[in-house]
Amino acid sequence: MKIAIYHNDNDHSVEVLDELKTKILARDDADIIFDDAHPDIVISVGGDGTLLSAFHAYEQQLDHVRFIGVHTGHLGFYADWQDFELDDLVNSLVHDSKESVEYPIVQANLFFTDQTQRTILALNEIVIKRSFGTLSAIVDINGDYFERFRGDGLSIATPSGSTAYNKAVGGAVVSPSLEAMQLTEIGSINNRVFRTLGSPVILGASDVISVKAPDAETDSVQVAYDTLHFVSEQIEKIEFKIAPTKIKFAKYRHMNFWQRIQTSFIGPEEK
Ligand code: NAP
Ligand code: MN
Predict the structure, then answer these.
(1) Annotated catalytic, 48?
(2) CATH 3.40.50.10330: which residues of the chain?
(3) For 78-92, what is each residue's pLDDT tens digit?
(4) Which residue has the least CA distance to atom 32 on ligand 1?
């Protein structure tokens, strides 16, 4: 089995990285080699943000890579192994069950005014905004006119990303067992000209959300996806859909999504 360890640079992550490597190398019953270029397993050491970066570093290899997140800060959503559980983790690697849990990801196809195209993927969400002023956009669903948006921006989130930015802008938390993507409005202006639904919309596997700049208003649109972003003055249209590939996490133990939500956002019951 080939393993890559992806980490952030904070001191504790580097310590955990060293400790993890030492523990793996100490196991002579293990058939494990380190291979950053073509790994079977990518272990992210850091926070959820680190796992998002690891996802993008290996997004071309989603068909065979399985991810594992070790967190070195507070409890993460993707990074759900704790730094004191490394022995358990190494044991699971040695006796790899090959099982995985798959979560849906979103894809955006961007069409530029110079006729070029670009495809991006996101594990959490893709957010479009204008650098200054409001974003004005015509939203079609499955090829038909849906609404005319004006406001701060639009977010299209995955189920596992629904607890991140999406939640902060009033979106629902969605189980990653559902093949879904969620469109949420960020600061929409509603009047007789700009009329939007006003509530988050959850769409399914065959749905396509298309966002077009009305008229010639293509100036400086900011596209933020997970930990990445770029600005372009030439975006004509963006089509969002659930990507054909999913992210795989190594399933070495039961990952309880709802328990993670409970611990992160609510905490123990007051007696
Ligand atoms: P960051 O500023 O460190 O991320 C913001 C927080 O979101 C961090 O606490 C991060 O956890 C957490 N987070 C990331 N993915 C999550 C998920 N799926 N569920 C719940 N919390 C999650 O920036 P970053 O580390 O580069 O992460 C990028 C993400 O930040 C974006 O994908 C977006 O979702 C989120 N974000 C949120 C807001 C907002 O809520 N207003 C604004 C901008 C970006 P860690 O500390 O473990 O990394
Ligand atoms: Mn972060």
Answers:
(1) yes
(2) 2-99+251-266
(3) 988 999 999 999 999
(4) 226
